[in-house]
Design a protein that fits this description.
single chain; alpha+beta
Amino acid sequence: MATTASTLPDTKALEPIRQALDRRRLLPARHYLDSGYPSAELIVGSAKAYGVALITPVLLDTSRQAKAQEGFAAHDFTIDWDNQQAVCPAGNTSTTWNDVVQEGVAKTVVSFAALDCIPCPSKDQCTSARSNRRRLSLQPRELTEAIQAARARQQTGDWNRDYALRAGVEGTIRQATHTTGLRRARYRGLAKIHLDHTTSATALNLIRVVAWWNGHPLDRANHSHLARLQLSLAA
């Protein structure tokens, strides 16, 4: 169990979790996560630092073109990293390639010439910028290629069948919140709340073991099994 402040993003919680698993030699080869965790940095960093593949649905392209599902999104452009240029779907080659830092993040800004964009019959599908030319803001090569590969994989049936394993985790979370009331903190302070979380997880493990031994699936609409377990432990 890992207990954090409610304001901490999931992406910030992943590193302490991996460190704890690493110390106990319990790191998995494949880590199945929900959509609150993925980023290009975490996908690449997990593989490099821990040898762990993150199996998680990454966010789709949020550009105007991608959201509207019409026009040319960034993934429609061919990026030639070695020669530092890009080719648009209409066949025009970029004219500038600048490595910059935007809000503390390293990016590569690629621009096309207005003389190519203005007469292009696909201009309305590509850009509405006042400068009359298309610009791309790219993450570093390794991150860009990692996120593009992840987006392509999750569109396949094999990926969806693999990620279906996550259903077992979601079922466990559902059972924990319904049976032990973990959605509401009973105490103040992370230390006390963490103790509550670990004892609740222990109780849940015992409930599931007893159900497995007896061959009786748990009734999720009934809290009585927790009460019976508490009474038996007290006895």
